[in-house]
């Protein structure tokens, strides 16, 4: 007897990484707001607590590090503990564990008001100059939606507060979730409480602002003209270091350079010179005050050269931060040079200090109105550093594309065709933690053979970049399996206005060829003829002459970002296909039609939705588990 014997050793990619990245030296105040309404039940409530404990576990907790508070709500609000209630991680974790299930209605607005008025106050431990993050977990609609929306708006009026909303289960209202969250990238949905862990990493990234990820090049241009004097000049240098301290340094992450301008311009620290933060910061403090006129245009020209493709060979986000206390000598040339800088894709921030600045000029120099900052004195520079850091972090996007364009390097696949015994009992993943590295051993995927067909939407609504993300997902999924005639076979079709069979089950015999073919799939664009794709799946793909095996489980995974042209025909074809195969449907983004997704899938639990293409990988584990489980 042959077994599909695949042993998956997934070295969890959220082990210690999260802690060694941007989070530890970027302290945060995190308030969890947890739905304890009657709809979810005690067991699910406790799953939320377990998730929060796990999530909190990765942060350094302390007065100078991350602080955590917990508020529960149902009919009323209960403040479980404040940001400053506990200074040790063990105490926070056990306090989370002690939380009682309130069991009542869903008065979300009361909780949001409470957080704004009481949790995020200095008296209760909220710190200035620290990111404040409110994470709301809910399993349904609030009782008074209008009040919820209003309370959320008031909370979000505080510019230093980010609100993340997590919806759990099928009763969640996506509109309400969006109204609660600071922006779309701050919303997460999972179809069940058991899946909360699937968003662990993305939630961590969002929480930490992932400023350390994705390369950024930041160039500082400081005014060294006679008007300010060396004491004030020194304050600019300190400001540079305060900002620098918030970033991860290195050629693959953030590089920084610095120049000063006065009568002439002087390149103090070329952008590629230092690869460690401490070297950079030490040398910043050695920069000398020059004295002279204010030839800002020369500084802008040098900034453009430093942030050009000639010097920066890696594609990166490029930022210029310009500090000045006066007006430039040659206004016209300043405006002209600023324009060239913007044309080169450099996000330009400008900070005007004191009363002698020309506000119009500042606006011309900045690449966006919102990139202009004003302070009255050099001493106030420190007050705005967090805003600038946050802007830069926001520009760098919450989810770096690097995680989706390369296969996860930390996921190791080991195929062991002979040593894995087919397991008969239902098996839970076993987890053990060694030296901070979390290792999850997934159960073997067997003892079944499977024919897995991917049906990919290649319509014009998504664009080639997003299509590539779908391919990355398929690739990462497929590479977990032992591919072959005694194990798992893959076939792939794409559809837009017409259907393209990319390969049948028997087109390729080697694993490598299958994986290559997945990556090589071209994007089409045009309409969304889902019904035709499902028709081809049934009548053409699952046929013996195309390698479909009678002894295999037939699985179809449909991935779409939109609604089909002909919904009625789609439903008819889906019904027929489901007699042949187990069908999963994955919807990406806000345009998907939930009813259609449900109509396509064999069971409600086979419907999966993610908010964006970047989040596709969060459901990989669930699909694998479902595809591998003996239940099919
Ligand atoms: C499944 O069927 C194929 C041909 O249809 C055969 O080659 C293979 O050995 C069979 N596998 C098992 C596990 O029965
Ligand atoms: C957190 O969850 C992960 C799975 O996502 C698990 O491997 C890990 O052991 C959990 N950590 C704790 C402290 O429960
Ligand atoms: C927090 O930081 C301050 C100033 O840097 C320091 O004096 C204090 O000892 C620190 N407290 C803890 C608990 O580390
Ligand atoms: C601080 O938290 C307590 C509950 O622990 C609350 O009663 C009080 O109103 C809060 N303080 C402020 C200023 O909101
Ligand atoms: C959300 O993320 C996407 C993709 O990374 C990005 O393009 C977009 O600007 C982000 N939106 C907001 C509001 O941050
Ligand atoms: C979908 O494909 C079928 C068969 O190729 C065709 O008859 C139909 O017109 C197509 N529909 C659209 C909207 O392109
Ligand atoms: C990739 O596709 C192109 C045409 O689309 C084809 O010429 C090439 O052979 C393919 N490569 C692989 C490895 O399949
Ligand atoms: C789809 O079916 C519904 C009811 O079954 C019908 O009202 C509607 O007209 C149909 N739409 C099309 C485009 O055929």
Write the layout of secondary structure elements.
Blueprint: E1 6-11, H1 17-20, E2 28-35, H2 41-57, E3 67-73, E4 77-81, H3 89-97, H4 108-119, E5 131-138, H5 145-157, E6 161-168, H6 174-180, E7 187-190, H7 200-208, E8 216-223, H8 229-244, E9 254-261, E10 265-269, H9 277-284, H10 296-306, E11 317-324, H11 331-343, E12 346-353, H12 359-365, E13 372-375, H13 381-395, H14 402-405, E14 411-415, E15 430-434, E16 437-442, E17 450-457, H15 463-478, E18 488-495, E19 499-503, H16 511-519, H17 530-541, E20 553-560, H18 567-577, E21 582-588, H19 594-600, E22 607-610, H20 620-628
Parallel strand pairs: 2-3, 2-5, 5-6, 6-7, 8-9, 8-11, 11-12, 12-13, 17-18, 17-20, 20-21, 21-22
Antiparallel strand pairs: 1-14, 1-16, 3-4, 9-10, 15-16, 18-19
Bound molecules: 2-acetamido-2-deoxy-beta-D-glucopyranose (8 copies).
One 2-acetamido-2-deoxy-beta-D-glucopyranose is lined by residues 79, 82, 118, 121, 123-124.
Index terms:
632 residues, alpha/beta, Rossmann fold, 3 domains, six-stranded mixed beta sheet, 20 helices, 22 strands, globular, binds 2-acetamido-2-deoxy-beta-D-glucopyranose, ECM_Assembly_Org, VWF_A
Describe this entry's structure for a reader.
The protein is 33% helix and 23% strand. Helix 8 links the parallel strand 8 and strand 9. The chain is an alpha/beta fold. The strands form 4 sheets. The protein has a 6-stranded mixed beta sheet with strand order 4-3-2-5-6-7, with helices on both faces. It folds into 3 domains: 13-209, von Willebrand factor, type A domain (Rossmann fold), CATH 3.40.50; 216-395, Rossmann fold, CATH 3.40.50; 443-628, von Willebrand factor, type A domain (Rossmann fold), CATH 3.40.50. The protein is built from 20 helices and 22 strands. The longest helix has 17 residues, at 41-57. Bound molecules: 2-acetamido-2-deoxy-beta-D-glucopyranose (8 copies). One 2-acetamido-2-deoxy-beta-D-glucopyranose (NAG) is lined by residues 2, 449, 485-486, 549-551.
């Amino acid at each position: 007897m042959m077994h599909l014997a695949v042993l998956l050793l997934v070295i969890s990619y959220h082990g210690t990484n999260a802690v060694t990245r941007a989070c530890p030296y970027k302290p945060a105040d995190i308030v969890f707001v947890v739905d304890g309404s009657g709809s979810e039940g005690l067991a699910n409530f406790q799953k939320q607590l377990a998730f929060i404990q796990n999530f909190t576990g990765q942060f350094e907790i302390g007065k100078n590090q991350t602080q955590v508070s917990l508020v529960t709500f149902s009919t009323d609000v209960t403040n479980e503990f404040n940001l400053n209630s506990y200074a040790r991680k063990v105490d926070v974790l056990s306090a989370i564990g002690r939380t009682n299930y309130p069991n009542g209605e869903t008065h979300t607005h009361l909780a949001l008001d409470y957080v704004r008025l009481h949790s995020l106050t200095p008296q209760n431990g909220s710190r200035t100059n620290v990111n404040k993050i409110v994470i709301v977990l809910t399993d349904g609609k609030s009782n008074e939606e209008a009040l919820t929306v209003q309370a959320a708006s008031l909370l979000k009026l505080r510019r230093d507060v980010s609100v993340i909303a997590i919806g759990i289960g099928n009763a969640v209202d996506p509109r309400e979730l969006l109204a609660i969250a600071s922006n779309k990238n701050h919303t997460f949905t999972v179809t069940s409480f058991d899946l909360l862990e699937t968003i662990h990493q993305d939630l961590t990234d969002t929480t930490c602002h992932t400023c350390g990820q994705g390369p950024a090049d930041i160039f500082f241009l400081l005014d060294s003209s006679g008007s300010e004097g060396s004491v004030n000049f020194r304050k600019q240098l300190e400001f540079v270091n305060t900002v620098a301290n918030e970033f991860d340094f290195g050629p693959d992450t953030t590089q920084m350079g610095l120049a000063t301008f006065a009568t002439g311009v002087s390149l103090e620290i070329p952008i590629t010179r230092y690869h460690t933060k401490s070297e950079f910061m030490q040398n910043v403090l050695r920069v000398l005050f020059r004295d002279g006129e204010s030839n800002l245009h020369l500084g802008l020209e040098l900034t453009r050269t430093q942030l050009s493709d000639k010097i920066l060979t890696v594609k990166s986000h490029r930022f210029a931060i310009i500090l000045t206390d006066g007006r430039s000598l040659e206004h016209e040339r300043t405006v002209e040079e600023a324009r060239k800088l913007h044309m080169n894709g450099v996000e330009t921030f400008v900070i005007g200090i004191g009363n002698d600045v020309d506000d119009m000029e500042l606006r011309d120099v900045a690449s966006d109105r919102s990139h202009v900052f004003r302070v009255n004195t050099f001493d106030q520079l420190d007050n705005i550093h967090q805003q600038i850091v946050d802007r830069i972090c926001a520009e760098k996007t919450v989810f770096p594309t690097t995680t989706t364009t390369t296969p996860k390097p930390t996921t190791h696949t080991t195929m062991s065709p002979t040593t894995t015994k087919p397991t008969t009992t239902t098996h839970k993943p076993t987890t053990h933690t060694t030296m901070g590295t979390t290792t999850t051993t997934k159960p073997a995927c067997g003892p079944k053979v499977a024919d897995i067909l991917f049906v990919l939407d290649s319509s014009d609504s998504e664009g080639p970049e997003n299509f590539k993300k779908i391919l990355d997902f398929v690739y990462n999924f497929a590479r977990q399996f032992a591919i072959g005639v005694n194990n798992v076979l893959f076939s792939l079709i794409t559809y837009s206005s017409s259907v393209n069979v990319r390969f049948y089950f028997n087109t390729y015999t080697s694993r490598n060829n299958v994986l290559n073919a997945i990556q090589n799939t071209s994007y089409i664009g045009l309409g969304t003829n889902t019904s035709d794709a499902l028709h081809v799946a049934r009548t053409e793909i699952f046929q013996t002459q195309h390698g479909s095996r009678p002894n295999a489980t037939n699985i179809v995974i449909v991935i779409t970002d939109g609604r089909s042209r002909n919904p009625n025909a789609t439903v008819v074809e889906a019904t027929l296909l489901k007699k042949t195969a187990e069908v999963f449907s994955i919807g990406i983004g806000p345009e998907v039609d939930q009813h259609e997704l449900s109509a396509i899938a064999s069971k409600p639990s086979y419907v999966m939705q993610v908010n964006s293409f970047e989040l596709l990988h969060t459901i990989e584990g669930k699909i694998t588990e479902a595809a591998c489980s003996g239940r099919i």
